[in-house]
Amino acid sequence: MSEPIKTLPLVFEEPKGRGKPPRHLADLNAAERKQLVADLGLPGFRARQLSTHYFGRLVDDPGEMTDLPAGQRETLVAGLLPSLMTPLRTLEADAGTTRKTLWRLFDGALVESVLMRYPGRVTMCVSSQAGCGMACPFCATGQGGLQRNMSTAEIVEQVVAGARALARGTVPGGPGRVSNVVFMGMGEPMANYRAVIGAVRRLTDPTPDGLGMSARGITVSTVGLVPRINQLATEGIPVTLALSLHAPDDELRDDLVPINTRWKVHEAVEAAANYAHTTGRRVSIEYAMMRGINDQAWRADLLADVLHEYDAPADGRRAPWGWVHVNLIPLNPTPGSKWTASDPADEHEFVRRLEARGIPTTVRDTRGSDIDGACGQLAAVE
Ligand code: SAH
Q1: Of 74, 111, 237, 373, which has the fewest beta carbons less than 10 angstroms from its beta carbon?
Q2: Do 248 and 220 sit in the same domain of this protein?
Q3: Is the CB of 184 under 6 A from ligand 1?
Q4: Which range among 6-15, 17-26, 90-99 has the greatest average pLDDT?
Q5: Model's pTM, two decimal places?
Q6: Range(s) of the domain holding residue 349
Q7: Are residues 157 and 46 part of one domain?
């Protein structure tokens, strides 16, 4: 008798039947914007003026766009700067330096983004999908399923909103800029690949075409959609890749990260190593520490073994550098979860074993956990 086919609760395709988010200049590159403005019957240079308002001056009130003739302003704003999302609520922690915003999108879908200000840098954690189809059982977002993919402009607007708040000095610490963006909010960025790449391009395009950020400050985190990791390696944008591994063995990872039944630990790690060897960017392995589940000393040793297998690139060149580091995440509580964070002593031993094997290891802070804004806690409920 043949094995019964396992049906997976994974969603790769966007659910059908919803309208598209309004088109916005952040969806388009400079040439496409110019064309669109021409199609509206207006001079092409207006596109650059609008882009300067949006990306350069971070203006959101059309009344401030005084270089646009009053007669054209309405057409331009309606055509290229439609309202994409409405803030419903902002929760603050750490004396206002951590801020989680709940957004309603045009169709009622809800997403969250988190701004985290540290001394010397500001990180925006953005969502790439409303919900998530990857169904990881320890993640709050994964419990609600996927509603839909976000558009490039909806992703970018989360960063622009943070940049505005910083520029206007409404975040404690004085006026500032967004230095880092992590695709670690709601959703699986690699399952919305085209829009995410578009957003990365808008974030890194020089002002006024985009926000002018450094690709090195951008991290794309994935459960391990192997073909997409390989594709990202060919884009020529040196973003940091983070792989949510959480277990070094297929038996456990099949349960913790259900996509593992499609792409195994070794396939995901090989693709991540290939990314590092191709781009020269060190990859980050994310590992949420769950008490008694994945935090045993032997699993630390096995993790080191698995990672060291890929020290040399496939073509036989010897990498003269460490291609990988491990970022342990103390498990954040989620509603109904049966798991808890590791004992600090076990966490400490896990770190010690990885470092003894020459693998740089850090422990992520739990910023935002008091406002359900930390890793795995974004559920976007009103
Ligand atoms: N879907 C992508 C992006 C989410 S990033 C990905 O999985 O990589 C969010 C990170 O937080 C991922 O590494 C995710 O596995 C991790 N995470 C999810 N739930 C968590 C929880 N309850 N505690 C700590 N980390 C969690």
Answers
A1: 74
A2: yes
A3: yes
A4: 90-99
A5: 0.94
A6: 85-381
A7: no
Active site residues: 112, 375
Residue 104 confidence class, pLDDT cut points 50, 70, 90: very high
Task: Count how many domains the chain has.
Answer: 2
Q: Which of 80, 113, 146 is the last residue of a domain?
A: 80
Q: 41 in a domain, yes or no?
A: yes
- Supply 55's token pair: 């990306």
Substitution site in 138, 225, 364 for ligand 1 pocket (most atoms within 8 Å of beta carbon): 138
For ligand 1, atom 12, which residue shows the shortest CA distance? 244
Phi/psi class of residue 294: alpha, beta or left (left: φ > 0; alpha: ψ in -120 to 50)? alpha
- Distance (Å) from CA 21 to ligand 1 centroid: 26
Other CB atoms within 10 A of residue 52 CB: 16
Q: Is the dihedral of CA 24, 26, 29, 34 positive or negative?
A: positive
Residue 6, in any domain of the structure:
no
125 pocket-lining for ligand 1 (C-beta < 6 Å): no
* pLDDT tens, residue by residue, 165-217: 999 999 999 999 999 999 999 999 999 999 999 999 999 999 999 999 999 99
- In 3-state terms, what secondary structure has residue 142? helix
**Ligand 1 atom 18 nearest Cα:** 376
What tens digit of pLDDT does each residue of 217-273 get?
A: 999 999 999 999 999 999 999 999 999 999 999 999 999 999 999 999 999 999 999
Q: Cα(329) to centroid of ligand 1, in Å?
A: 9
Question: Amino acid identity, residue 300?
Answer: A
* Helix, strand, coil in percent for the chain, rounding step 5: 35, 20, 45
Q: How far is the CA of 184 from the centre of ligand 1 (A)?
A: 7
Instruction: Assess whether 170 and 251 both reside in one domain.
Output: yes
- Please tell me whether residue 13 adopts helix, strand or coil conformation: coil
Share of the chain above pLDDT 70, in %: 93
The mean per-residue pLDDT over the stretch 278-300 comes to 97
Asked if the structure places residue 135 within a domain, the reply is: yes
Q: How far does the centroid of ligand 1 lie from the alpha carbon of residue 291, in Å?
A: 16
CATH number where 263 lies = 3.20.20.70
